[in-house]
Amino acid sequence: MAARRIWCAGLTVMAVGYTLVGFYHGDELQLSVTSCIANIGAGVVVAGAPTLVVGVVSPDEQGLGSGMLNMLISLFGAIVTAGAYAVLAADSKVVDGTAFYLDNGYTWIFWLGALVTVVALVLSLFLPPLHDADGDVRPA
Question: Is the pLDDT of residue 130 over 50?
Answer without folding.
Answer: yes
